Amino acid sequence: MAGRIIYLEVDDEITTAAARIRDASPTRIAVVLPYNSRVATSRINFRLLSRDALTHDKRLSIVTADPAARALAASAGLSVFASVAEYDSALVGVEEEDVDGSADAGPGPTVPATTARTPPEPPARRQGQAKKPEPGPERKPDRGSVLPAAAAAVSTIEPEDTIRTAVPREPAAGSGRRPAGPTAVPAGVARSDPSREPDEHRRSRLPWLIGAAILALAILVGGVGAYVLLPSATVVVTPRADRVGPNQLTIIADTTASQPDPVAGVVPAAEITIPIEVSDTFSATGTRVELSKATGIVRFQNLDPTSANRIAAGSIVRTQSGVRFRTDATITVPQADLVGFTIFPSRGSVRVTAVDGGPDGNVDAGTIVEVPNGKSSIFLKVANPAVTDGGVREEFSRVTQDDIDGALAALNLKIQQAFREAMDDPSLATNGATVFPSSGRLGSTTTNVDPATLLGQEVTTFAVAMSVTGTVVAVDPTPVGEIAETQLRAAVETGKQLVADSVDIVIGEAVVVGQSIRFPVTATAEQVAILDADQLKAQILGRSVADARSILEAYGQVDLSVSPDWTGSVPGFENRVTVTIDQAVPVETPAP
Question: Is-cis flag, bond preceding 246, omega within 30?
Fold first, then answer.
């Protein structure tokens, strides 16, 4: 009858394993354990499984590739196998024996309870004995009984509370017989057991195995002692760094260059075009004055009874305050009438116009009282019967040349300001380029109107717009540093190399010359000799510590130690000498 194989997972507990064993219908059961199985963590787990299996008339075997797990299972009295194939091959003979002896098979042999402890045997040997039993009597012992007994023979038996029981055979089909229960045999009672013959054979070989183990241990201890006690040397060489430079360079950024030229020391520069347009409204400061003259009517009275009085056109009459009026026409005033001793003057009116324009000519009625020069104020009187009006002063704003010049100057200032702001705009340059405002150049300005046409315009304000195109040079400084580093690396001596992170590139303030930018650059670095640890080791093998140190100090700082220190020399074996190349020692920079 084929045995059932139960596969357990790593996390399965012993309770899970016991339940699956009890639920299995076959009597022969093999439990397959993976590496690191929780069931295989202690021997007590295997003892519990073994007892539980015997209680439920099961024959339990353990299959695992883990040698430690097999050792624990064997120490618990269980049959162990390294693989399922090994277990299956072992079952073939056992099943045949079960079939042949099913009629008269009785209970399997039992192992007497004992408190003695026997030395453990390696799991590999137990497995080998499980597969190839020693020669014995003609009747082969039951494999289900031999394997647990063999494992128990080489395991450490627990104290007296641990009792071995026989593994029951599987009854033949239809026999109606059940295997006998476990029977404890008292200590000291002799009982024939075919499985004892292989045990005796193994005991005879045990001294040889112990001797071989002691010899292997002695060899191991001797090797470790030789490794510890043989002379060794540890060497750490720290290369001494030399300064490279300083290299004084002038890298030119030219707008005509398209690619960096390390040989010529030229990097490309970009000319950026900046369109600028500004406008403003300005007030006209010039003035045109227009005066309108006041007009009115004056009336003359002639008091001379002897003759008429002629007033020519353009005669000046005035107010007492001096406001003058000119007569518009010639007028003749008849002589006065004399009636008795009373004189009745004659009158005549004429229009007058103020000599000076403006509102001063607007006078009240009766204020024009001064007669023209040359006329007698005794016989000729004048007065304005009504106000004079129409005298007006009007001012008109006018664009002057000064206004135009001032407007253009103001726009030029705004152009300059807008250009500076545009050059300071971070978004002007791209791809890491730097704009140099001192390289900015403005072209010729243009206005939206001809300034000459503005002159004399009678307006209060006038607007002017001005536009110009400017250029500025932008340079990506990255190639500047790269060219400086390239030239610095070219200065490294043969057989040496630059120390990592020692390159120091200092780019000075750029000098603008036309459309090119000149960068003064100072480049320094540190270099060290390229050392080969194997070559250094070959030079010092077998030499004294002093000679070895003297040889290595030519390459830098040396940290040499030998063990034991009383040897005073470097071992002559390469594998006893360790040479390490450390990082370079920085060059000391003198304080300023």
Answer: yes
Domains of the chain, each with CATH number or no CATH: 4-210 (no CATH), 288-392 (2.40.30)
CB-based contacts of 484, cutoff 8 Å, min separation 6: 247, 249, 251, 505, 507, 521, 523
SS3 for 588?
A: coil
Q: Is the pTM of this model over 0.85?
A: no
Q: Of 49-53, 204-208, 243-247, which gets the smallest average pLDDT?
A: 204-208
Element (H, E) at 466: strand 461-475
pLDDT digits (tens, 9 = 90+) for 505-553: 888 888 887 777 888 888 888 888 888 888 888 888 888 888 888 888 8
Calculated CA dihedral for residues 8, 12, 17, 18, nearest 10 degrees: 180
Give the DSSP letter string of 315-357: -EEEETT--EEEESS-EEEPPPEEETTEEE-EEEEEEEEESS-
User: Rounded distance, CA 369 to CA 378, Å?
Assistant: 12
Cα–Cα–Cα angle for 434, 435, 437, nearest 5°?
A: 145
238: CB partners within 8 A, 6+ apart: 556, 557, 558, 559, 582, 583, 584, 585
**Nearest alpha carbon to residue 582 among 237, 265, 330, 350:** 237
Is there a contact between 355 and 324 (Cβ–Cβ < 8 Å)?
A: yes
Distance of CA 498 to the CA centre of its chain: 28
49, 79 Cβ separation under 8 angstroms: no
